[in-house]
Amino acid sequence: MRNMSKMVFRRLAFIGVLFVSFALFSPVSAAEGGFLDKIKSFFSKSEPAAVETKAEEASAPVETKSVLKQNTHSPDEPTFDFSEKKIGSDDAPIKVIIFTSLTCGHCAHFHTHMLPKIIDTYVKNGRVQVILADFPLENRAMTGSLVAHCFEGDDYFKFMDLLFAKQNQWMMSPNLQESLSELAQSMGMSEAKMLACATNEMALKTLSRKRNIYIMKYRIGATPTLYFQGYGKSEKVEGAPSWKDFADKIASFEKEGGKKTQKVPAETP
Which own/partner contact pairs does 218-222 have at CB distance under 8 Å and 24+ positions apart? Predict the structure, then answer.
């Protein structure tokens, strides 16, 4: 009976997240304009957002590289990279997609404490590929994600590291513009470009569409959520797993593939 109640609750929670997502984030929703207005309200000056951005691959699926660019006339014009954010080799037999939101406390802890260890233990030796998937749950998370996607290549990961490491500093700041600008400038991005990136409507629609696809394809309803796939099977884990639970999950996949389980280091305090 208890298990049945949990199942019903999870289904209702998922339906609720799905409803809110399409109400607030869907590119065809009338509410999206209000959502963009909310993001713009974080900034005292948003003139750079008037820069037009050409969507070269705005309708590309999640698995396909999608980059929003325009003719380069100014270093402050926004250029967005929405390609899949992979860490590790494409030949890795196990893929782990991490759905994360920049203002989620458990996401920040997992990103700053667990992810480096996962990379050292599983990614560098080719056993696992990690894919970071943006799943912003509220306005400030979406704003940070838009700025992050203005960085390309390794700079994207470095800025995400910075946002998670400094989460309380910018998330709780009464002046989001000042806080994000300080972090962006430490990575070489001007304040004008940061503003243009954070308030770009085309980029907002692209990121919102990707988020909706994640909900429909993977049934994501909370962050962090990890999606394991490889050796012909897939499993979803909601919440941040402990190091032991993560290691056990990888071991179960490798056993499925007939691989000998390798000893992993114990969890450090």
Answer: 218/97, 218/99, 219/14, 220/17, 220/99, 220/135, 221/10, 221/13, 221/14, 221/17, 221/18, 222/13, 222/17
Per-residue pLDDT of the chain (269 residues; tens, 9 = 90+): 545 444 434 444 443 444 444 444 444 354 455 556 767 777 765 443 333 333 333 333 333 334 444 444 577 889 999 999 999 999 999 999 999 999 999 999 999 999 999 999 999 999 999 999 999 999 999 999 999 999 999 999 999 999 999 999 999 999 999 999 999 999 999 999 999 999 999 999 999 999 999 999 999 999 999 999 999 999 999 999 999 999 999 999 999 887 665 655 556 43
Q: What is the DSSP string of 44-110?
A: S--GGGGS--EESSTT--TTS--EEE---S-TTS--EE-S-EEES-TT-SEEEEEEE-TT-HHHHHI
Domains defined for the chain, CATH in brackets: 2-256 (3.40.30.10)
Identify the H or E element spanning 132. strand 128-134
Strand partners, 228: 96, 235
Whole-model pTM: value is 0.76
Q: How far apart are CA 194 and CA 46, in angstroms?
A: 10
